[in-house]
Recover the amino acids of this structure.
């Protein structure tokens, strides 16, 4: 070998493409282990160059002495061990490699063909060099992979839970339910599923409370089980799954497993269910445990494993018939606890801003006590976003003075990019100070934390059933949370935890946090329980049952919403709502939207209202963003702004693809939310279609040209490849933070960049992100057809004012009873002091993110009208109400996501309860809003059309729900009529809230006899509905929502003085009518042409039951006594009228 | 000695590393010109997206025949596989480079 060397490999030109091509022909043929053109092939040549350089260097410097020594010391050894191993005397690295490459046959072929036109030296040397490099390359990649494997196994072994491996497997084999309790860092979430998998269990499902955990666990576990490129381990979350037939272990969210139980009650697809993080006590998890508890009886073969932190373990074990508990110690380093209660003068009252001084002192203390070279970051727990920004500002100032800190906020309303920053690494000598909400208590784990500051406070959502309002309130945390926060300091080494409260405070804390089921509205839960056939929710055995009152509230609410009937059973619409993964009000919108030709915009709005707002709060104070957002805003309401935003974004996506990222940044939009909306609206669409509420679209594929389709397929293949490449990249490497970085200026910071340079901008962006592709864009393109979306967006972009009007009504009906009325005096108040009232909560304000917060005038009754001569006080035809999505009390009760609707029309069309006086000039809606009309004729006209419209709407809706799709023509007609009603009802009225006193004396109460008389008339007024005296309110219950003449100022039902002359516009009948008679006449006398066959048919049963409705009537004109129904009486009278 | 086939659990007698293997022998499937110089426990390289890439887990010590992994703490290859205890026993027969290497480990 030594003789072969002619000055190393440098003499032949290994960078010449020709030379390389020849080597490729020998070593990297199309079927070889490494193929020319592959990634590894490229790696090899890079390796080759390094290898040659290394060899050359070694020869230059050390060839003489190392070789000299080798030959002298390599002399026959002493043979002390007895056996001669017969090892080569001269050391060569080649002998260390256990791989060989046979290419003799090919070599000869190549060499012989080369001899003809020899170009450079003898090929043998080149081949030898290349082979040697290849061997080293193969050996190198073997070593690399093996050390990965060894490291992996070492780490697995070092986890505290590793010692319990066999015990866990045996417990699960022997018991239907097992509880595994272990603290953070013991490895239960990653290891237990693997232990079970390795011991022969298959079809394992492991639930997680958070989607993100499903993804990261699936990734980690598939890596650890050496199957990262297979699908043995997968995840399934709302819009994404990696599950295949080969999947044996599946991570999924609790909510998703519940949905699967809805489909398949016995969960036959799983052998083992692992419910992780049960101690977090989320609503879904508590419910899931309840469902699984009854499932264990049904499926004795099923294995259930509950995994929990070491919190309240007994509770879980006892709930499952004293299931065995295996407790695993955590791996926490010692943590020093320092109690530093905040002195009285620095404690802030509820209304004041938080005093940041106690927090600053901790930072200063750390700087004094711990040398900067000793690494370790700080995690500071505060209760809410406002508190975070106060302390952030103060710490920021301190940081710029000392140059020893980088201060970063962390809470869920930040953009994802900003949230992600907390994982970046500070430069040496600088510490990260992460100021966070309790999001970092369990959901987000940040490595390298050594110091924890715990304010002891948390803001938690609770539901106030009386005010029907969510409330975000500050509480002391529990001891369990306190320990959890402390533990964050001891994950990577010994740590320190500063508690800004006293030890006696700590002792007074509640032991555990209040489980979610005790805090939130249970509407969705009850609905889901009903649809799963779990019987009376009050008798369901929860691990910790919610108060009966809150179940009752939910049942009542669902009845109000029409999801449950009077017997608390699911209605058809309720059945459907139970399957939609959204709030009941949003689900209602979807169903209503499917009826009219407004599906696309309703889908978008429903999706938009179901995800976090894409508008970043932090960008609200950025004037560039505000300006850029301006064109998207709609003063019809926030759902319309969201609709505009989505549509505009889709257009941008269609036109310049990845350029949308920049477009979003300029407007302070979180693009991720828009992607979520796209996914969600598609899911909604599929759900509606699967319930036959939507016709199958004529697929555009049929009209697509063949070439277009081919292009699309090529594009898809390319996208798939991009996604694959992205998936293979082991999570991006962490960036190093710069001093002065952080703060909240990320959003819109690049807003000043020219948008017109979108093409260039895209490239620049790519560089910035380290050549990574925008994976969201890729996924979006794979999942959705941009052009189809564009068409949809186009259609809903140019809604006519009529369509807009109908859409508002649909939203309003969906959101009902979430309505707010403006305060009477708003017009005279400052912009910032506008007040609204809901039925159950007085004095709510509009959230600053709403369009109505900045533009409240559109809600005022026009000035002109108010001062109009002769108009009574408060009378107008322009009163408006707000329908809203959320009512949340923080420091004030705020309504957000509002849409404005015309008050009278909307109320009459959607309200559950409308009560009137005798001439219908006074109406009370839902017992809290009073409408007074001065024009009696107008009042009747309006009420009567509302009743007709609602009857028709309900009929068509029921038809749609029972899968007999209503005829399009009828739907269109109804749509038109509703719009006409909304737009062209011109009547003056006043809109007031009732006072407490008025509410008390609202109704006349049941009347003994006289009221009964009207019953037959009303009966025929609305066929099929039995009008009866209302036993509570008095008066007559005309429809399920309308009670006539029950208000206490009402006059007698048939008192003659109420009769006024009236001419029927249809039949020209002119005679005195009572209001009821008039309504009745109007309902039955419609222009002949308008009558439809089915309507005529539906009238038949009424006339056949004449006997019960008829009464004895004495006609004064012909002197006869007749037995007639009221309709017939009118007809009879009309005969005389015509004759005269 | 064309071994072949197999499948089962490979376990290193020295460090306990344990992992399923899919092939035992000198010529893993689909490796073309590449051959192994010892009969080895082989699996598909779990860290490569390429299905054809293999990973040698270990083999038997040429002296004591114990199954050992290829990790440098357990064995070394010098024309043949030697488990580290066997190397140490006959350290003097190994070239100086290896002697230094082994000494560094102690
Ligand atoms: Zn070993
Ligand atoms: Zn040995």
């Amino acid at each position: 070998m030594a003789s072969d060397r002619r000055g190393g490999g440098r003499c032949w030109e290994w960078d010449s493409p020709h030379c390389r091509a020849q080597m490729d022909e020998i070593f990297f043929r199309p079927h070889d282990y490494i193929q020319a053109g592959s990634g590894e092939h490229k790696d090899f040549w890079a390796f080759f160059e390094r290898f040659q350089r290394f060899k050359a260097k070694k020869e230059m410097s050390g060839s003489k002495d190392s070789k000299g020594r080798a030959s002298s010391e390599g002399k026959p050894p002493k043979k002390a061990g007895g056996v001669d191993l017969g090892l080569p005397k001269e050391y060569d690295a080649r002998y260390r490699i256990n791989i060989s490459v046979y290419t003799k046959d090919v070599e000869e072929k190549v060499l012989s063909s080369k001899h003809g036109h020899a170009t450079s030296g003898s090929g043998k040397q080149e081949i030898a060099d290349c082979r040697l490099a290849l061997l080293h390359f193969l050996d190198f990649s073997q070593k690399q992979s093996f050390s990965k494997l060894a490291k992996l196994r070492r780490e697995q072994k070092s986890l505290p839970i590793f010692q319990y491996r066999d015990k866990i497997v045996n417990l699960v084999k022997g018991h239907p339910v097992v509880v595994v309790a272990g603290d953070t860092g013991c490895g239960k979430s990653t290891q237990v599923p693997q232990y079970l998998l390795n011991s022969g269990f298959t079809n394992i499902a492991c639930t997680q409370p958070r989607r993100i955990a499903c993804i990261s666990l699936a990734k980690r576990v598939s890596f650890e089980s050496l199957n990262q490129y297979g699908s043995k381990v997968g995840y399934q979350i709302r819009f994404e799954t990696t599950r295949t037939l080969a999947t044996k272990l599946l991570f999924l969210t609790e909510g998703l497993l519940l949905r699967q139980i809805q489909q398949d009650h016995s969960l036959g697809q799983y052998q083992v269910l692992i419910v992780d993080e049960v101690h977090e006590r989320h609503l879904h998890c508590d419910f899931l445990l309840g469902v699984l508890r009854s499932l264990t009886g049904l499926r004795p073969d099923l294995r259930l494993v509950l995994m929990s932190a070491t919190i309240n373990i007994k509770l879980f074990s006892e709930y499952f018939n004293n299931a065995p508990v295996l407790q695993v110690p955590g791996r926490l380093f010692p943590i020093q606890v320092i109690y530093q209660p905040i002195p009285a003068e620095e404690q802030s009252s509820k209304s004041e801003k938080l005093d940041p001084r106690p927090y600053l002192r901790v930072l200063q203390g750390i700087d004094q006590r711990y040398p900067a070279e000793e690494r370790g970051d700080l995690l500071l727990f505060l209760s809410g976003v406002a508190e975070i920004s106060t302390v952030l500002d103060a710490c920021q100032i301190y940081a710029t003075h000392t140059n020893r800190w980088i201060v970063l906020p962390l809470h869920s309303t930040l953009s994802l990019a900003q949230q992600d920053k907390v994982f970046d690494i500070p430069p040496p000598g600088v510490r990260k100070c992460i100021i966070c909400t309790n999001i970092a208590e369990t959901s987000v784990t940040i490595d390298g934390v050594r110091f924890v500051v715990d304010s002891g406070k948390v803001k938690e959502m609770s539901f106030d059933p009386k005010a029907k309002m969510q409330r975000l309130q500050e509480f002391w945390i529990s001891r369990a949370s306190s320990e959890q926060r402390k533990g964050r300091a001891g994950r990577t080494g010994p740590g320190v935890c500063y508690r800004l409260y006293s030890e006696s405070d700590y002792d007074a804390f509640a032991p555990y946090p209040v489980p979610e089921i005790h805090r939130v509205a249970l509407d969705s839960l009850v609905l889901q329980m009903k649809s799963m056939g779990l019987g009376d929710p009050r008798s369901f055995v929860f691990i910790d049952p919610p108060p009966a009152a809150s179940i009752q509230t939910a049942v009542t609410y669902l009845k109000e919403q029409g999801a449950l009937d009077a017997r608390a059973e699911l209605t058809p619409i309720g059945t459907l709502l139970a399957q939609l993964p959204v709030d009941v009000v949003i689900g209602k919108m979807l169903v209503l939207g499917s009826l009219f030709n407004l599906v696309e915009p309703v889908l978008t709005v429903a999706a938009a209202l179901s995800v976090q707002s894409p508008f970043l709060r932090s960008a609200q104070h950025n004037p560039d963003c505000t300006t850029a957002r301006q064109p998207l805003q709609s003063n019809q309401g926030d759902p319309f702004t969201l609709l505009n935003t989505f549509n505009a974004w889709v257009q941008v996506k269609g036109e310049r693809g990845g350029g949308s990222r920049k477009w979003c940044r300029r407007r302070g939009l979180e693009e991720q939310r828009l992607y979520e909306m796209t996914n969600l609206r598609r899911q909604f669409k599929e759900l509606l279609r699967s319930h036959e509420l939507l016709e199958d679209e004529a697929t555009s594929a049929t009209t697509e040209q063949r070439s277009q389709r081919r292009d699309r397929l090529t594009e898809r293949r390319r996208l798939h490849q991009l996604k694959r490449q992205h998936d293979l990249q082991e999570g991006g490497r962490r960036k190093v933070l710069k001093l002065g970085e952080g703060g909240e200026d990320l959003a819109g910071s690049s807003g000043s960049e020219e948008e017109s340079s979108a093409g260039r901008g895209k490239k620049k962006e790519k560089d910035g992100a380290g050549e990574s592709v925008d994976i969201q864009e890729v996924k979006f393109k794979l999942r959705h057809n941009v052009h189809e979306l564009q068409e949809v967006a186009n259609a809903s972009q140019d809604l006519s004012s009529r369509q807009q009007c109908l859409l508002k009504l649909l939203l309003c009906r969906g959101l009902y009873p979430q309505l707010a009325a403006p305060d009477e005096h708003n017009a005279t108040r400052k912009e910032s002091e506008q007040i609204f009232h809901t039925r159950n909560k007085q004095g709510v304000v509009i959230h600053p993110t709403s369009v109505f917060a900045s533009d409240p005038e559109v809600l005022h009754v026009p000035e002109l009208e108010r001062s109009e001569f002769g108009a009574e006080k408060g009378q107008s035809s322009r009163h408006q109400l707000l329908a809203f999505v959320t009512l949340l009390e923080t420091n004030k009760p705020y309504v957000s996501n509002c849409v404005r609707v015309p008050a009278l029309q909307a109320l009459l069309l959607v309200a559950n309860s409308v009560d009137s006086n005798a001439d219908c000039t006074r109406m009370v809606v839902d017992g809290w809003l009073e409408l007074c009309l001065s024009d009696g004729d107008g009042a009747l006209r309006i009420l009567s059309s509302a009743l007709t419209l609602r009857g028709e709407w309900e009929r068509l809706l029921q038809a749609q729900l029972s899968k007999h799709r209503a005829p399009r023509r009828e739907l269109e007609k109804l749509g038109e009529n509703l719009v006409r009603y909304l737009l062209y009802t011109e009547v003056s009225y006043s809109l007031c809230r009732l006072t407490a006193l008025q509410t008390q004396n609202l109704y006349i109460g049941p009347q003994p006899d006289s009221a009964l008389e009207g019953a037959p008339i009303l009966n025929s007024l609305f066929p099929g509905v039995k009008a009866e005296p209302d036993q509570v309110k008095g008066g007559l219950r005309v429809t399920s929502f309308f009670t006539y003449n029950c208000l206490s100022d009402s006059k007698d039902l048939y008192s003659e003085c109420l009769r006024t002359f009236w001419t029927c516009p249809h039949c020209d009948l002119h005679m005195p009518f009572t209001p009821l008679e008039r309504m009745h006449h109007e309902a039955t006398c419609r222009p002949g042409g308008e009558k439809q066959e089915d309507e005529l048919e539906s009238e038949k049963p009424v006339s056949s039951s004449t006997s019960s409705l008829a009464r004895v009537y004495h006609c004064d004109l012909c002197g006869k006594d007749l037995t007639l129904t009221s309709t017939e009486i009118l007809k009879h009278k009309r005969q005389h009228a015509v004759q005269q | 000695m064309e071994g072949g086939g197999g499948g089962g659990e490979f376990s290193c007698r020295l460090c306990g590393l344990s992992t399923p293997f899919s092939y035992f022998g000198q010529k893993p499937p689909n490796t073309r010109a590449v051959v192994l110089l010892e009969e080895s426990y082989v699996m598909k390289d779990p860290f490569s997206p390429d299905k054809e890439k293999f990973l040698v887990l270990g083999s038997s010590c040429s002296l004591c025949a114990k199954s050992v992994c290829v990790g440098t703490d357990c064995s070394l290859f010098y024309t043949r596989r030697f488990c580290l205890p066997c190397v140490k026993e006959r350290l003097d027969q190994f070239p100086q480079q290896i002697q230094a290497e082994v000494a560094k480990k102690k």
Residues 8-105 of chain B form one domain. Residues B 12, 14-15, 17, 68-69, 71, 74 surround zinc ion (ligand 1) (CB under 6 Å).
